[in-house]
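Figure caption, in words: inputs first, then the predicted bound structure.
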Amino acid sequence: MEERLAALLATARQRLAAARSEDEVRQVQVDLLGRKGELTAILRGMGALAESERPRLGKLANETREAVEALVAGKQAELARGALDRRLVEEAIDVTLPGKPLPSGSLHPITLVLEELKDVFLGMGYDIAEGPEVETDWYNFEALNIPKDHPAREMQDTFFITDEILLRTHTSPMQIRYMQRVAPEVPLRAVFPGHVYRRDEDATHSPMFTQLEILAVDRNISMGDLKGTLLTFARQLFGPDRQIRLRPSYFPFTEPSAEVDVSCIFCNGAGCRACKGTGWLEILGAGMVHPRVLATGGYDPEKYSGFAAGLGLERITMLKYGFSDMRDLFTNDLRVLSQFKGVRA
Ligand code: PHE
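Bound structure (phenylalanine present):
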């Protein structure tokens, strides 16, 4: 019987040393100490022992049970430690690895140009204001000296919503809205950026595009002030060597009116493909605010005068960044937009 107990302990040592999982340990425990296990079988033999031998062997059996239980507990602890160690290794985070870069966006080239323009005019003391894209016929045309039957309405193919409501075809209605807001305060200096709409679409026209309207009203504002302001703006935007020229033109809301050209930013006036050999690029329309428009805005044309100009941001963006098709500014192709990553206005 002593031998059998010693053998049981030896088996326990051996099997537990070889065990790789908690399940295996549990199986050893069942086989050796369980109700139908080895130890139970040995104890059943107790009855055959001499009375005098029983206490000693009973004690030895108990000690063996305790020894096996201690071995089992030790092995379980070892396995649990191993599992923890493995997890610590597997789940370790190397904080020195480089991070995954977050995808970053970029400012749209039109936004870049707009921010730059705002800076130029803020620097000259101008306010910035915005107004509605859904506009009335009155603000878009009538108040700007373009009555219903006026042929100038056909220069701008209009999206009408009703007979009297439309999508503004230019930012010029903001001249009226802003004058009405601040009149008769002078000096008035403000720019009005925003989207405008015309039924037009090809490589150099889009049904929705962006304008910046420039308006100044004061006593004794002259064409010279207009030219000086536009020259300052052209040089800040396109470089200090730029020249501008004013060609006579016609707008119903300015008198006199002019188309304004800037010396070609590509050939510096020598003549190239971009300027079609002329040395000049047309960038905006301008003029002295028509007396009737001043009066409608709330300024006495006998006392005050003003200049106004309107320019298309898409055209300037195309020139500045070398776009040849305006539609590339609106398709939001990431291959195009991502080229402006990191570019700041
Ligand atoms: N509103 C004109 C256009 O859209 C531009 C312009 C604005 C001309 C102000 C003169 C004065 O073409």
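Residues 170, 172, 213, 251, 254, 285-287, 308-310 surround phenylalanine (CB under 6 Å).
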